[in-house]
Amino acid sequence: MTIIIALLLVAGLALIFGLVLAYAGVRFKVEGDPIVDNIDAILPQQQCGKCNYPGCRPYAEAIAKEEAEINQCPPGGETTMLALADLLDREPKALDAEAEAAVPLVAIIDEQTCIGCTLCIKACPVDAILGAPKAMHTVIAQECTGCDLCLPPCPVDCIEMVPISANLKTWKYPLPI
Q1: Are residues 86 and 45 in the same domain?
Q2: Count of domains forming the chain
């Protein structure tokens, strides 16, 4: 009998706390900035850090606050910069020197040299590297964004960034204005 009373008491408390949390979630809901969401949707979501921000969302927030320019995204290139200029009603700017010179790259792992340390897997922001501890790793080329964040943690320097060969699937072209 005491077990049933204890179970009913715990269930009642869980119900009360659940209702309080549900009410608080609705009552104190924090709305995001819709312009940041729109900017973030335009960015390529490579999380490469080449814009000097740790990811696309922080860069979008900086653009919305006018703390960053719209031309700092090398992976997005001119197409992204023009889309951001159109969205924000700003004057298009020439791409950053780094963004202009950016060539699409993909990581390649020398499988004979790889020691299976998994440091590159932890560093990859898009989970493009497959492998297991103490086993050879490989890169899913279609998922790799070319951010080169996997290079510094590799203790045996078995990762190389190579240009993506131009074909119908990888060819990028600017949108007409």
Answers
A1: yes
A2: 2
Q: What is the pLDDT of residues 75-92, one digit of tens each?
A: 777 888 899 999 999 888
Positive or negative, the Cα torsion across 10, 11, 16, 17? positive
143/110 same-domain check: yes
Classify the phi-psi angles of 45: left when phi > 0, otherwise alpha if psi is within -120 to 50, otherwise beta: left
Predicted confidence (pLDDT) per residue in 38-68, tens digit: 999 999 887 777 888 888 999 999 999 999 9
In this structure, what token pair is assigned to residue 40?
């973030």
Which residue range(s) make up the domain with 54? Answer: 34-100
Residue 119 has pLDDT above 50, yes or no: yes
Out of 76, 100, 124, pick the residue that ends a domain.
Answer: 100
